[in-house]
Amino acid sequence: MNISEDLKKHNFHFKKKLGQNFINDDHLLNKIVAAAEVNGDDVVIEIGPGAATLTAALAKKAKQVIAVEIDQDLYPIIKERMADFANFELVCGDAMKVDFDELAAKYGAKKYKIVANLPYYITTPIVMRLLEEGFQAESIVIMVQKEVAERFSAKAGTKAYGAITVALNYYGEVSQAFNVPRSMFTPRPEVDSAVVCIKCRQERPLKADDEQLWRSLVKAAFSQRRKTLNNALKALNFPAEALKEALAEANIDPSRRGETLSVEEFVRLANILNRKKTLA
Description:
The chain is of the alpha/beta class. About 40% of the residues lie in helices and about 20% in strands. It has two domains: about 5-200, Vaccinia Virus protein VP39 (Rossmann fold); about 210-280, rRNA adenine dimethylase, C-terminal domain (Helicase, Ruva Protein, domain 3, Orthogonal Bundle), CATH 1.10.8.100.
């Protein structure tokens, strides 16, 4: 493929504020499609198709591909590249605002797959919107900055483990598929990337009774990583005695730091605190 010629033909200029880096390697495109396990029964929603290189690779395998793009300057490039695909729809819009369930429902799909080469600056907000707002995606396969991928899939007790790790693993099963060198993009970014797979949990084995409280707990635990839980969780404004009792009931040593707690421990502690709040 020759992305540069297509972009030049349409007098396209990259917008730094949108973090635009387009994939220019056919082998990589096929690896992403394979990681997403796309087949002929799937409706796939792609966020940020860019120059539609991944879009075309997806359309060769999927029943239907719906691409959501915010940059109007890319529309003629996308339409030209996808002209031969009857199973393609371009949606002009903002991925932070569109209703993904509604898009998929037009093609009779209650469940669908999301694939994206996300701009680094908006990776976390988009992923958390997809998970927290309860969309019916069965999986999310995304290209992200390598450092971010390491945070997404980190283990408790490691330096990369943080609030985002806990959140993602609460809503889904996270794995890192493979790394991607910066040379695979046009223009070349300053960092390497990685593809991450999130299999969304249809029924969560760990369920917070009050997800807002659970989020506040996780945020407080990581807000100052060097603080012990006994000190960090004071930000929740629970009575000191109630917090002490909750930690004991959850079998969590108050001298531990938030980065050592598993997702299960965060949920267990949040539910105990919620019961105490309800009874107060």
